[in-house]
Specification:
Blueprint lengths: L2 H26 L3 E4 L6 H7 L5 E4 L2 E3 L5 E4 L4 E4 L6 E4 L7 E4 L6 E4 L1 E4 L2 E2 L11 E4 L3 E4 L2 E3 L2 E2 L6 E4 L3 E4 L2 E3 L2 E2 L9 E4 L2 E5 L2 E3 L2 E2 L6 E4 L2 E5 L2 E3 L2 E2 L6 E4 L3 E5 L2 E3 L2 E2 L6 E4 L4 E5 L2 E3 L2 E2 L6 E4 L2 E5 L2 E3 L2 E2 L6 E4 L4 E4 L2 E3 L14 E4 L2 E2 L94 H9 L6
Parallel strand pairs: 1-2, 2-5, 3-6, 4-7, 5-8, 6-9, 7-11, 8-12, 9-13, 10-14, 11-15, 12-16, 13-17, 14-18, 15-19, 16-20, 17-21, 18-22, 19-23, 20-24, 21-25, 22-26, 23-27, 24-28, 25-29, 26-30, 27-31, 28-32, 29-33, 30-34, 31-35, 32-36, 33-37, 34-38, 35-39, 36-40, 37-41, 40-42, 41-43
């Protein structure tokens, strides 16, 4: 080849490389699509989006003839601002959104309301009225699932073979309505999940898991609230089975109901393990047994929890079980439940220590006395639960249900509990927080000065306290 031929070939090769690089750069460039600026139809925006794109949705309600679909590509869907109400609606005609395929891994949904979705069909068509996700790991944050229904599992949300991160999201009034349907708020099958700062309120399921149900997976649930969820069988707030491992930290279970057993939580099957720490169980009910908890062949450990005002129709206000493994209740408060005479179902493997149990309970460090709690379960000054738990038995975050320091010594209370090293923890979900002695007694507002602002507070409160 002569020099001119070599030069032409070399230039052509360079041109091909340059064009390929340009095409690759274009494909790697993530675009932003704004709805309705770029298109008034959310479904069109999803169809136009390439993997890696972001769809920003302005305030409004978006409903179309068919469900929205993300199939095999990664997108971020977000509201235009935290204040904007962006509603994706199924208009009570179909599911709101479906996400599937490993190509959708990394998809993020932020600030979206899923409302009035329905899954009335057969098979996979009856799962996840608001959102159905399969084979894709997704992050959901700052969202609302409101008033969605499914004939099958997962009225609000259904997932399979997926690991989810769900944060600051509300599940409100979703339902699974068919015979044997589970997971009114959400149904999670398999995967490893992180759920934090969420509210499950007023969801229902015909069978189990009014708030949510988890099968054959693992979940860390932190700072979540479960209120007013109901089921036809068991697990008003939560149902777990098939080797599930779930930890609840700093959670509130209040006013949930089961028509059979486990008004709060029900865990099922050998190998299924439940750990609950620094949590409140208030006013949960079961028509038969286990107002707060029901176990079947599963294990439970409850650390620094408060069980108050729970009720079972026949017996075992706190826990009932069938052929279970170890059941440990350490540093808990059991008070004012119905029937008070049988808070725990008796039997082997029951380990209750350093706990206050109304009516008494055998075990090291247990006491039977009025716990002196306020209506939310906080100990008042002079309560016998202060500095009466076991620090050695406690394992978990060193913050109580309300975020206060766990293991905070009260100088006015003698230590009646146990600790190998460091302060003795209190019993129950809340740690008593002693009021520090002010170095400036006249500083009412705590700004480090005694001035007119403090006088104004005093004068505003002047008069009888009766």
């Amino acid at each position: 080849m002569n020099d001119s031929g070599f030069i032409r070939s070399n230039c052509a090769a360079r041109l091909i490389v340059t064009l390929a690089a340009a095409c690759l750069a274009q494909s790697l460039h993530a675009d932003t699509i704004i709805v309705p600026d770029d298109t008034p139809f959310f479904g069109v925006a999803l169809a136009q989006a390439a993997s890696g794109d972001t769809i920003i949705v302005r305030a409004g309600t978006y409903a179309e003839a068919n469900e929205f679909v993300i199939d095999g590509k990664t997108v971020t869907i977000m509201s235009e601002s935290p204040e904007a109400e962006v509603i994706l609606s199924g208009a009570d005609l179909h599911r709101v959104l479906r996400i599937e395929g490993p190509g959708a891994n990394g998809t993020v949904i932020d600030g979206i309301t899923f409302r009035d979705g329905t899954a009335p069909g057969n098979g996979s068509g009856n799962e996840g009225g608001g959102l159905r996700i399969t084979n894709a790991d997704v992050t959901i944050r700052n969202c609302v699932f409101d008033g969605n229904t499914a004939v099958g599992a997962g009225g609000g949300l259904y997932i399979s073979n997926t690991s989810l991160t769900i944060a600051n999201t509300q599940f409100l009034g979703n339902s699974s309505t068919g015979s044997g349907a589970d997971g009114g708020g959400a149904f999670l099958s398999g995967g490893i999940h992180t759920i934090s700062g969420c509210l499950f309120d007023g969801n229902s399921a015909a069978d189990s898991g009014g708030g949510f149900r988890l099968d054959a997976g693992a979940a860390q649930v932190t700072a979540c609230v479960f209120t007013g969820n109901t089921v036809g069988v068991g697990g008003g707030a939560f149902f777990g089975r098939s080797g599930t491992g779930v930890t609840f930290d700093h959670c509130r279970f209040e006013g949930n109901h089961a028509d059979l057993e486990g008004g709060g939580l029900r865990v099922y099957d050998a190998g299924t393990a439940l750990l609950v720490r620094n949590s409140l169980f208030l006013g949960n009910t079961a028509a038969q047994t286990g107002g707060a908890l029901h176990l079947s062949q599963a294990t439970v450990k409850a650390l620094n929890c408060t069980f108050m005002d729970n009720e079972a129709g026949s017996s075992n206000a706190i826990i009932s079980y069938q052929t279970v493994g170890p059941r440990a209740f350490h540093n808990v408060i059991v008070w004012n439940n119905t029937p008070a005479s049988t808070p725990f179902e008796s039997g082997i493997n029951l380990d209750v220590r350093y706990s206050l149990v109304e009516g008494g309970q055998p075990g090291l460090g247990n006491i039977n006395a009025d716990p002196m709690l306020d209506r939310d379960g906080r100990p008042l000054a002079g309560s016998p639960v202060i500095d009466a738990g076991s620090t050695s038995l406690y394992s978990g975050p060193f913050s109580d249900f309300g975020g206060g320091q766990r293991g905070l010594d009260d100088p006015d209370t003698a230590d009646t509990g146990e600790s190998i090293i460091g302060p003795v923890v209190d019993m129950g979900a809340y740690e008593y927080q002693p009021v520090p002695v002010s170095q400036c007694p006249g500083d009412i507002n705590g700004d480090g000065m005694v001035d007119g602002a403090d006088l104004g507070i005093l004068l505003a409160a002047w008069g009888s306290c009766l």
